[in-house]
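Memo to structure team: turn this sequence into structure tokens by end of day. - J.P.
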Amino acid sequence: MKAPTAAVKKDGARVQFKTAEEISQWLITEKLISTVPWDDAGAYLRFSVTFVAKDQSDEKRVLAEVGRRLGDVRFEF
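Reply from structure team:
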């Protein structure tokens, strides 16, 4: 996906990103979400979710956690 150029937190604090590498580092340190940055052809991020779930409710729990981690920020593109 196209990498965001900024993240705006609920408190209004804005973090600007010049490269996919910058947003990728921010996501891992601030949200514990790992992505693969790609700046060779523009700023892009690759997301991949890999986990072992016991059942469908466990899958929903994991995906809800990802949503919770990203839910307090608005991304600008």
